[in-house]
Design a protein that fits this description.
The complex is a heterotrimer of chains A (about 575), B (about 180) and C (about 50). Chain A has 26 helices and no strands. Chain A is mostly helical. Among the domains of chain A are: about 60 residues, no CATH class; about 180 residues, no CATH class. The longest helix of chain A is centred in the C-terminal third of the chain and has 28 residues. Chain B is mainly α and about 180 residues long. Chain B is about 50% helix and about 0% strand. In chain B, helix 3 packs across helix 5. Chain B is elongated and about 80 Å long. About 10% of the residues of chain B have low confidence. With about 50 residues, chain C is mostly helical. Helices cover about 80% and strands about 0% of the residues of chain C. Chain C is built from two helices and no strands. The mean pLDDT of chain C is about 90. The chains are: A mainly alpha (about 575), B mainly alpha (about 180), C mainly alpha (about 50). Chains in contact: A-B, A-C. Chains A and B meet through helix 2, helix 3, helix 4, helix 5 and helix 8 of A and helix 1, helix 2, helix 3 and helix 4 of B.
Amino acid sequence: MEILGYLTLGIFLTLMLLTLFGYIRTPVQTVLVMSTILCLIVGGIFRFAYSGWDAVMLLPNEFLGGIILHPITALLTGLFLAGGLKASGGFEALKVILRYLRRSPIGLVGTLVILINLPVISSLPCGRILAAALLPLLFTFGFEGGLGILTKSQLIVLIGAFTRNAMGSCGPSPIGGVGQIGEGFLGSFFPTASEGILRAPQAFSLMLGTAIVAIFLKMISQRLYPEDVALREAPPSAEGVERKEPEIVAPLEGYLALAIFVLSLLTAIFQPFGKMPVQSVLVAGALLMIVVCRIRLTHLMEGIILLPVTAMASGFLAAGALAATGGFDALGTLLNSLVKVPFLGVAGMLAIFVQFQTILPLSCARILTAALVPVLYLFGPAKFAFLDWSQLAIVMAAYIINATTSCGPSPLGGGGMMGEGTMRAETGFIKGAYTFASMAIMAPLAAIYMKFMNLKVFQPSDPSFVKDITTIMEFALAVVAVNLFLIFLSRRVLGTDSSRNFYFQLIGFLTAGALAGGILAFALFETNATAILQGVAGGIVAAMLIGLMVPRTLSRRMTATLSGPEM
Amino acid sequence: MSDQEKRVQIGEKRQDTKQPTVLPGIHRYQFFTNLKDRGWTLNLDRVALFGIVTALLATVLKPLFHGNAATIYCYECRACYATQDRCPVGIMFQAELAVAGRVLDYDRFIRNGGLKCIRCGNCQSYCVQYLPLPRMFEIMQDDTRSAIRNGIVPRYSLERAMNEGLVGKEFIDDVVKALA
Amino acid sequence: MLTWLTFIFVGSLSGVIIAWALDMKTPRELVQGAVGGFIAGLLMAAMLPH
């Protein structure tokens, strides 16, 4: 029966890679459902042969278990609320508040920095909730949106960085975030892990990762794909002319709706009225909006976007089919066998493992996280004993932030597509920036934060764990400095030849990947030189796989996809 | 048509605001809505969407019809794993039991020790939503017992449960009878 | 306390980098970016378990 797992894993990976590289040109939902059906057919045949008809009949129940309802319903209720906010003029109210903020001492820049970091601060269980609500607002800062405060380049950076932050914010969410899956497993050793052992490392690395994404989008992405963002620049006639900012008047209902929105979020996160599902709080907020702001149910429903919901659901189905047919067991065995590769060892294998979801970005991080976190758990004292509990917590921190952010660069209906859509960019525009930040900044820094801060917080009785804020800051500065240097260097060598640019970018990825792998190995095994070298080797392998998936050009592929090659 | 003209034409299509809104703020000629080769995939897409909606409905309706509605609310956050050795029968992965209860996955339930649960409620205090885990497990235990009696649960699943000591004394007779 | 300090530091650092990426390069704008990041870091730290 083990062969069945390898077969279904092969089917899934083949279909995903063909879609990622544009050879299959159907909506991602279709591909994922086809993968599900194929896996189930193959699984059914094998089960019939080995265990009889009874086992086949239970297959549907087993694959349905792959569906995680929480993010789907949380997203739907969040979109519901966003629809209400839009209908009642809540966004107008937000614009007025932002105008006051812009005129305050923190100015436009400070306001934008807070806006960009708002998703991680509010930490909702799906980044799309806030992205759906705020992306149209960010668009208004540009020429086409009406305010005309920002140039095209600035708007690309703003939208890209905000979306990056949003599509990682589901990790540190205490109300059913992706990180809670890892926290649950760490709860086997750290008694208070479920109170948020992974939240701070994720938030810490996400804030810095967002900044690196902003720089990458400004210096690399816009040079690599100069013609692939259809946002309009202000026409020459408008240049140099002082544009009068249109007077924004928000209705009272708008302010009320905004207040209800914020209160709902705070109630969902802090749960002052006792434990309750986030969905219930958000729906109660929506109902309150209907009563107080006099909006209709249809307005709320207009806020719902089906694509992310169906993409996520189909991803869960595919994952469920893989789990039911042993595909994930096969994946675990494969990853486990990397330990035996001489130049990789445990450190190298883990350097690849933590980057796995960025290598294969799917529409929702939970799809693979739910399957791979148990595998990671088994690397710890529970089974293989490659790691002790504190090392497992460090790897978990690195893995979870990398996994959480993987829906951002996914071209298969991932959250980043919302940003690309808003900036009118071709699909794949943000992929380089997002994957680079996840790989080079977030994973290693989350590991460092966990090692030098959170282990002490969550296991205070163990004197071997220390809080070392200086080391964290030094690492943060060093990692950021090295990666900024790489980005600056890449910018200097980029030219008009896309193939040449691609290879330069790949070299940058490899260097950053090596550094990330080395830091992870250091966080785990400290100054063990062999482990660090193995980590570097693993980092290079992971970076190679990630870098090769970044699109070389966008327009040509998209043109062919849109119109067929003969046009 | 020259390359320039092609690019202009596509650019115009992408700027066409009459295109349906696919994502917030996006009125564009997206590749997944206007593919040239969409003709042969159109029905495939419909089948896929039908499959997704059916699966979602099944996931919600199944627990409702089986009286185990609380399983719908499970975040699958695994906070319950912190129960550790406070579980008197040594169940490690309580969330697995909740998910198995939602979709009636008997094999998963038995494999994770659902049939040895004594419903003490120690795990409930770790649930971030304080879901009634003992009650959820009890309902699934009853469903599993019925399934065993009706011969629905595969033999290999019961054999493994017996070999690994995963069957509590309440259920041992049913399992032995089914294996006889 | 150390968590607060760490997040204030990381918020300010990311604020300056984002400001620079947004083509805001005068010292005043960079400081405003840092202050925005400082506030973001402070809010983030407030939301974390201590």
